[in-house]
Amino acid sequence: MSHSQIELLQEEPTHHFHPLVSSGPKTDAQGAPDYLNDNGDSADARRAFSDWASGRAVRVEVQGKPEGTGTSFVHSENAVKAQKVTSPGYGPWALRYGGHQFGGWADQLGDGRTVSLVETINPTNGQRVEVQLKGAGRTPYSRFGDGLATLKSSVREFLAPEYMAALGIPTSRSLCVTALPDVSVEREEMNTAAVNMRIAQSWLRIGNFEIHARHKEWESLRILGEYVSKHIFGWSEVVTDQGDAHRPPWAARLVQRVAESNAVTVARWQAYGFMHGVMNTDNIALTGETIDYGPYGFMDLFDEDCICNHSDYTGRYSYRMQPTMTLFAIDKLIDALAPVIGYEIINDQAPSPGVLQSATRSDIAEWTDAADAKREPIALSLQRTMLGEWETVWAARLGLLKADKELIDSLQIAITSLDMTRFMRGLCAVPEKVANNSPIECIAQSLIEGASHVQSDTGPSRVDLVTNWLKTYIERLCAEGRDAANVSAAMRKRNPRFVLRNWITDEVAQRLEQFDTAFLEHVREMCARPFDEWQDEEVRLIS
Ligand code: AMP
Ligand code: MG
After folding, report:
1. Which of 56, 69, 380, 395 is the most buried (most CB within 10 A)?
2. CA of 109 to the centre of ligand 1 (A)
């Protein structure tokens, strides 16, 4: 052992932050990380993480390390010394994926401006986390792109997840955005560049399967499917090595899982008026987390046909179409996995290594056809899950134990071209007003006034529409017979007072150009606590 190795081992921090087995870096640190067995004390892990994320620590592979794990975090001042005694075993990674963009197959896309750094487990909730940098430069998949991201798009992707998480919508998160004032990014105009450090349980998308299937890379498809089943979804019985063991089927179950989780997520988007804008299959996460925030928008004036992406000329990804587009994406995942799904139906077990690769074209065609049996059941269960979740979230927003499609549809008609957020926040007072015997027309009038941006929205036909809906709604409230004050209070925890409108993210970005970070922090706080009774200087932001 050389002198520098001894020095390194002595100075190495005692806390360990081992990545999991991953699609990227090679590591021999298998199984549960040490810090999960330390009786719940997560301080060390947090410190290790922040040391690493801030650049104070770097991860290196140390040859001859006594514990045999071979990989460690060391403080960055030791990194140079560490380099001398390491072998190349770790690096950030970018993944290849394809995708259907606006309905057409776009072939290979891939992580063109993101690199993943590490996969690990969040010690507080046991969930996987994959840490990624977006906008950190070109990758092997950058194609004609510059690998960069603008400060504006990065800060939009920083704020939206905070707001989504506060609403209870599954989402990726952003840890920090670092502006790069010395780097300009050319888009329609010149922009300041930024790097966004973002996390998700996994950044794998439907497009990761599609690219292998389209290129008939059946072994890669199988390996990825087994990896996702076992390591992302935690199905420990899935067999991933050669062996003669019975191989439990996983493919249809995997699609079912992706369908269900995305159904829940999109149901919540619909109930809160979130529009993703680019639901291409390369932007649909296998975990169901909302990812890749681009031209997203939260509904201002309620309009089912609202399109938030100005380059979506046909309205393919309009608010109304989002559930249908979820079905489309899941159908593409079935297409990609069809040979495996069919093989499993016919053989009652998953394909072993080599089976798919050595299959004839007619075998693949037969298995692909057999997979059709799963299409309808998966589509039906997606629709059922989505409808059920949508009714559940709407019921909570309405202060009801149960809400049906008819009541919600008629509400959406009644609030068309009114401000969705303000109407719903106003509605929180209705149970109390009913208990105080306020006349229904007065309630309707004040709800409409509170949610109108222009006078013409307040005419007699609008009052009739809202009054009629209120009659049914109030009947339901009364039939459930719950305490009005409690119901109103519960509704105020489900109907935000603050909504992250596009003009707000625009203003945040403009002020950041002037190095005003205080405004960003202010908006971030409002995103994180959107149900609070924001007052005074915040009034401008909730109007
Ligand atoms: P998006 O529309 O952001 O989902 O991106 C679609 C594809 O284009 C993905 O594969 C991205 O990685 C890639 N891409 C987008 N912007 C850039 C860029 N500035 N440089 C390189 N690749 C990019
Ligand atoms: Mg994308």
Report:
1. 395
2. 7
Ligand 1 atom closest to the Cα of residue 292 is 4
294 lines ligand 1 (CB under 6 A): yes
Q: Got the DSSP string for 225-277?
A: HHHIIIIIS--TT---SSSSS-----HHHHHHHHHHHHHHHHHHHHHHTEE-S
| Backbone CA torsion sign across 200, 202, 206, 208 | positive
Active site residue 282: yes
The pair of structure tokens assigned to 470 is: 């209120």
High-pLDDT (> 70) share of the chain, %: 82
pTM for the structure as a whole? 0.86
Structure tokens at 452: 């109108």
Report the 3 state secondary structure along 428-476.
CCHHHHHHCCCCHHHHHHHHHHHHCCCHHHHCHHHHHHHHHHHHHHHHH
Closest CA to 417 of 459, 472, 469: 459
| Tens digits of residue pLDDT in 466-478 | 999 999 999 999 9
Best mutation site among 97, 100, 142 for ligand 1, i.e. most ligand atoms within 8 A of its Cβ? 142
Cα–Cα distances (Å) from 428 to 8, 142, 336, 494, in that order, read 61, 48, 46, 9
Centroid of ligand 2 to alpha carbon of 98 (angstroms)? 10
Q: Is residue 25 within 8 Å of residue 90, measured between CB atoms?
A: yes
> Where is average pLDDT lowest: 37-41, 60-64, 99-103, 305-309?
37-41
- Rounded to the nearest 10°, the torsion over CA 263, 265, 270, 274 is -140
Atom of ligand 1 lying closest to residue 282 CA: 4
Q: 284 alpha carbon to ligand 1 midpoint, in Å?
A: 14
pLDDT of residue 326: 98
Picking from 262, 264, 270, the residue whose alpha carbon sits closest to that of residue 420 is 270
Average pLDDT over all residues of the chain: 87
Instruction: Give the distance, in angstroms, between the CA of residue 306 and the centroid of all CA atoms in the same chain.
Output: 21
Q: Which is catalytic among the residues 44, 146, 244, 282?
A: 282
Q: Is the pLDDT of residue 280 over 70?
A: yes
Write the pLDDT tens digit of every residue in 353-391: 999 999 999 999 999 999 999 999 999 999 999 999 999
pLDDT for 166 equals 98
pLDDT of residue 539: 67
462 pocket-lining for ligand 1 (C-beta < 6 Å): no
Cα–Cα distances (Å) from 121 to 17, 20, 29, 40, 481, in that order, read 9, 8, 13, 13, 45
What is the sign, positive or negative, of the torsion defined by CA atoms of 216, 257, 285, 249?
Answer: negative
Q: Where are the domains of the chain?
A: 6-200, 206-385, 401-492
Q: For the chain, percent helix, then strand, then coil, each to nearest 5?
A: 50, 15, 40
Region 62-82: mean pLDDT is 47
The pLDDT value given to residue 241: 87
Ligand 1 atom with the shortest distance to the CA of 283: 4
pLDDT in tens, 179-202: 999 999 999 999 999 999 999 999
CB-based contacts of 469, cutoff 8 Å, min separation 6: 410, 411, 413, 414
pLDDT at 441: 95
